[in-house]
Amino acid sequence: MKRILVTGGAGFLGSHLCARLLAEGQEVLCVDNFFTGRRRNIAGLLDHRNFEFLRHDVTFPLYVEVDEIYNLACPASPIHYQFDPVQTTKTSVIGAINMLGLAKRVRAKIFQASTSEVYGDPSVHPQPESYWGHVNTLGPRACYDEGKRCAETLFFDYHRQHQVRIKVARIFNTYGPNMNPQDGRVVSNFIVQALSNKPITLYGDGTQTRSFCYCDDLIEGFRRLMDSGPEITGPINLGNPGEFTMRQLAETILDLTGSTSSIVHEPLPMDDPRQRQPDITLAREKLGWEPTIALKAGLVRTIAYFEALLAEGV
Ligand code: NAD
Ligand code: UDP
């Protein structure tokens, strides 16, 4: 049995990862400051004999003994990471320094939840790991994009300088149960709006694209990357190459929910990437991984989750 630290463990992805690790028979230490995460996401895990929760902010040092670390702590939705941009950069950068320092001290293997945002508004399509990106250092998304880019730099410097064993995943848009209904990301917004028959807020003309991965597929990718041989450090793209416009996404959700909602246009946020699709050649070759759940199938499961949540009045 390994003792595994998951930072951001009460969030959307973190809660799925904690559940998966417990199911594998591991011991899990979940750390979160509840900025965007929720007690509800880990409520079903609290009684598990191998689960421990610690309320802690990763911008402060943490002294624990663990074998592996998954560093997921960071708000992921533009609305939330732009709410306190200085704290967002601190979480990514100081959080990475603290977790890498911990990994170095206890000789733990460490995984970083990096992002497709390191590619910015990409001029190469689809995006391979070799693409250096196109990021506005001064815009409203920079606190997140540049924070994550700097965290990648720190991971590779700790690896070269201190031989820390690192695994860096570049995650593309992922969705599923345990997303916060107030999260602000497109899939949760559209589903909650559709289920309440409120207008669907389509930003810009809706021709911008994203590629959506279902959470279970992504967590499988996390596990394969963490357990891969020492020669694999990443960065490695994890995402579903199926690419859709935001208008297509809105129409699919309206169709699947049978909603009477109208679509209303709102201004496109500044620096909103025009297109995004992962090139997952490397993940296929190195990890034997690729997504298995198509968008409609994943949306059906996610809609069922939000339906239950709304019925509870949460
Ligand atoms: P989320 O907002 O649901 O989860 C993030 C968690 O981190 C929350 O529980 C939050 O409370 C916690 N957190 C934030 N700041 C913290 C701090 N200073 N100290 C301790 N905990 C803190 O988002 P998510 O979708 O689960 O994302 C998890 C990770 O994956 C993030 O690092 C995110 O950048 C990355 N990621 C996610 C996606 C996606 O589509 N879901 C895409 C790319 C990258
Ligand atoms: N978006 C939208 N309506 C919403 C929320 C988001 O049209 O209510 C658009 C947003 O402009 C972007 C895409 O959906 O083009 C994905 O946005 P999200 O915030 O989910 O993630 P990110 O931009 O970080 O990929």
Note the topology:
Blueprint: E1 3-7, H1 12-23, E2 27-32, H2 39-42, E3 51-55, E4 68-71, H3 78-81, H4 85-106, E5 109-115, H5 142-162, E6 166-171, E7 174-175, H6 186-195, E8 200-203, E9 209-211, E10 213-214, H7 215-226, E11 236-238, E12 243-245, H8 246-257, E13 263-266, H9 281-287, H10 295-312
Bound molecules: nicotinamide-adenine-dinucleotide and uridine-5'-diphosphate.
Percentage of residues in strands: 15-25%
| Lateral arrangement of strands in the main beta sheet | 3-2-1-4-5-6-11
Cα shape: globular
Structure summary, number of beta strands: 13
Number of helices: 10
Which residue ranges are poorly predicted, with pLDDT under 50 across at least 5 consecutive positions?
A: none
Largest sheet: 7 strands, parallel
Which key phrases capture this entry?
single chain, 314 residues, alpha/beta, Rossmann fold, 7-stranded parallel sheet, two-stranded parallel ribbon, 17% strand, binds nicotinamide-adenine-dinucleotide, binds uridine-5'-diphosphate
Provide a descriptive summary of the structure in words:
The protein is an alpha/beta fold and 314 residues long. It has a domain at 3-173 and 214-241 and 278-292: NAD(P)-binding Rossmann-like Domain (Rossmann fold, 3-Layer(aba) Sandwich), CATH 3.40.50.720. Helices cover 39% and strands 17% of the residues. It has ten helices and 13 strands. The protein has helices spanning 12-23, 39-42, 78-81, 85-106, 142-162, 186-195, 215-226, 246-257, 281-287, 295-312; strands spanning 3-7, 27-32, 51-55, 68-71, 109-115, 166-171, 174-175, 200-203, 209-211, 213-214, 236-238, 243-245, 263-266. It has a seven-stranded parallel β-sheet, with helices on both faces. Helix 1 packs across helix 7, helix 4 (85-106) runs parallel beside helix 5 (142-162) and helix 8 (246-257) crosses helix 10 (295-312). The radius of gyration is 19 Å and the shape is globular. The mean pLDDT is 98. The site of nicotinamide-adenine-dinucleotide has 28 residues, from helix 1, helix 4 and strand 5.
